[in-house]
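Researcher: Next sequence.
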Amino acid sequence: LGQLLFICSISPPQYHYISLQMNYSQAQTYCRDMYTDLATIYNSGDLDRLVQLVPNGTASVWIGLEFGDEFEWHWSLPDQRNIEFFNWRAAEPKGDQNCTSVILNDNKWNVQWCNISWGFVCHGNLILIHENMTWNEALSYCREHHVDLVSITTELLQYWVTERAANATSSHVWVGLRFTCSFHFWFWIRSDAGCYQNWAPGHGSDSQQDCGIAGAVETTGRQQWVSLEENQRLNFICYKCSGDSGEGLIHP
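Model: Next structure:
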């Protein structure tokens, strides 16, 4: 395989402005289906990048900050409970409104009734493709429509991939992991491979390998990596990076 060179950072967050008018719950569902979740904002730099995506004249957009069942403000994104950065308007948050938007004339955060319809901002640069394809077909699809099949090089990326894989319609999802018969080792199709591994027992470098196999992630159970014949047809996960679609783009 020839190498495809690209720049795609998974940090800072990659944001996607969606102009569709939806209430908070609908926007959250859309983001979780198409990306990762409603936007999480970790610092002022993230806020600046998010605001730059939104067209002039837009009054407000939903972000993923909510007052949930635990009676505290937290991000919609799972496991993001420790909030170190806030940018509330004066006297906010107040009342019994439980959802948050960014007011674009001053970039401050404002609590809103959750049933109001606004545009919104998602984040995430991984997308699950629900079509069943062979590994090579999936690779071609990702490179034509997005950037590449995902390479899982860290534990954090493994977490994001398993979050997406859980919504698949196949038992496994293809990722950018390939076995070379010529040199008898596994490699990621991206060059920044790293040392992270999460093979299921009986799979990977310690097992006997055949030609024509590629790596996939289980969609249930422990969601570890397995080796499968590359002509099997599975869902797959692509990278989405800046400039690869008509939407505004800036973690999975």
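Model: The domain at 15-123 is CATH 3.10.100.10 (Mannose-Binding Protein A; Chain A). The chain has a mean pLDDT of 85.
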